[in-house]
Amino acid sequence: MIAPLSSDTLAAAEVCFAVASWLLYVEPDISSVAEQVASRQFASAPFGEESDDARQGLRFLDGWCAAALRASEVPEGASTDSAAAFLGESPAFAEAVAELRREWLRLFVGLGTPEASCLESYYVEPNRHVFGKNVIAVREVYRRHGLEVERLHREPDDHLGLMLGFLSRLIAEEREALDAGEGQRAAALAGEGDAFLTEHVLPWLAPWRYAVERHARTGYYRGVGAFVFGLIACYAERFGICFDGEARAFRRRK
Prior knowledge:
The chain is mainly alpha-helical.
């Protein structure tokens, strides 16, 4: 049984999944991180805060942002735009973002093997084979919704950041169907989200999260690991799926 969500709740989940997608998939740069810090983007989230993990992740992320503001000596009372501009000119902030960039590369890209790979294939394919059957299966799901990876055949489609972006798209389509009074289509899209999570994300999400927890050195990426895990776990509950801490696996309630 899939729990229906209101249009407002779906819109909130859509935004959070899009942000989570960006945090994993896009290399951090000064302008984007400055905007996060200046706006205190991670002080709260519109969806997912029911999860202890998501709240912990937000605390780590917001703590890093607050420390970056202090270290860069941003004037008190500065507007968001002024603070972002100030951060963009701060050598201390530039070094803080450079540290994030090095960590993002080490955790998720790697010169050899990433310390916390974001690829489904790494966890489920024999010999960690990239561009295997899982990539093909994920690609076909994307194509049914008119999506294609920009660097097709050069980058695996089963990157967690891409999959979170796809889930954000599915949630948006469900919301649009719901708002248009197309209840059956909205339910079908929710069912697709259930199937995609169950088959391609949840089986390896816990090992990925523990890898981030073990190897991340900054509060920013410790926060990313906890927030992404908690956000997905919170959304999975609408499908009757909960995380079993003892088994370190997701289980569907009977």
